[in-house]
Amino acid sequence: MKKFWQEFGNTFLAPLSGCSDLSFRLIAREHGAKFCFYEMVDANALLHQQDPKRDILKTHPDDKPIAAQLLGSNPDQMLEAAKLLLTMVEPVFLDINAACPAKKILKKKCGAYFAKNPTNLFKIIEKLSSNLSLPITVKLRIGFDRYDEKEFIANVKNCEKAGASALFVHGRTMKQGYSGTVNYEAIKKAKAAVKIPLFGSGDILNRELMHKMLNETGCDGVLVARGALGNPWFFSGETPDPEEKKNVMRRHLAYLEKYKKTRPTGKLGQMKKTAMWYLKEFRNTHELRRQITNCRTIPELLALAKII
């Protein structure tokens, strides 16, 4: 796995649920992203053939290399879902989501809930790593409702022992969600405690914060999430002018129209959200948001995008 990071760099596009679809990834790759994740895939939904979940796995010849992330709490079901997933796509590695703090995920006793029940997480890692040929990684948080250094370090060591090939650590607890400050010291201690590669995550909103994460923790790389929304230039380090932002926004919308397979209303909503990402720093943002919100059809939105 260490050789892999050296080949594809240390800045990966994170698995952003509801955001990092094929269109998002293609735009990111055009601007320097060398490695991406599919959106998070729910194991139960995949096994029950729910089309929206399968659409998440849509790919393209230019959409490589890539990794997949699986969500679930039952070791046997996770293995079954992983085997099915591998008949559909060819990820370089498979990640286990032990970091999502959403309430609906916690109710399923997975995602960030694993900080409360790490034993089950270790069982899933062992089940997958011993039955699949590709590397298994884990994205996790530093605790559930609080950070306990001893417990957290034990957890990362046990992930490694169970067969994880790499770790992606979000430097907040489940209770913090995406608020408060990232605990760089916790990530630094985790990095020192394991021999496998460890990536830092949380508040990588710009390249300055990316370098802060790398320098203060000594981690092997970072996962970029919110910092890439409407900002694919994060990966190249370029500073686009307003006209470039508008042109890339238009191309992103065109990709969504072409590749997004969902209900027209759902596609329109995704396209509106995407347009607003790119325009958030424009001087007349409020008026632009109003105009975008008022669009009732995809052709209407595309026509507006041409004249913005």
Automatic annotation (TrEMBL):
Location of the DUS-like FMN-binding domain: 13-298
Chain residues that bind FMN: Q69, K139, H170, A225, R226
Keyword DNA repair: no
Annotated InterPro entries: Aldolase_TIM (IPR013785), DUS-like_FMN-bd (IPR035587), DUS_fam (IPR001269), tRNA-dHydroUridine_Synthase_C (IPR024036)
UniProt entry keywords in alphabetical sequence: Flavoprotein, FMN, NADP, Nucleotide-binding, Oxidoreductase, RNA-binding, tRNA processing, tRNA-binding
Active site: C100
EC number annotated for this UniProt entry: 1.3.1.-
Catalytic activity: a 5,6-dihydrouridine in tRNA + NADP(+) = a uridine in tRNA + NADPH + H(+); a 5,6-dihydrouridine in tRNA + NAD(+) = a uridine in tRNA + NADH + H(+)
Described purpose of this protein according to its UniProt entry: Catalyzes the synthesis of 5,6-dihydrouridine (D), a modified base found in the D-loop of most tRNAs, via the reduction of the C5-C6 double bond in target uridines.
Recorded family membership: Belongs to the dus family.
Name of the protein in its database record: tRNA-dihydrouridine synthase
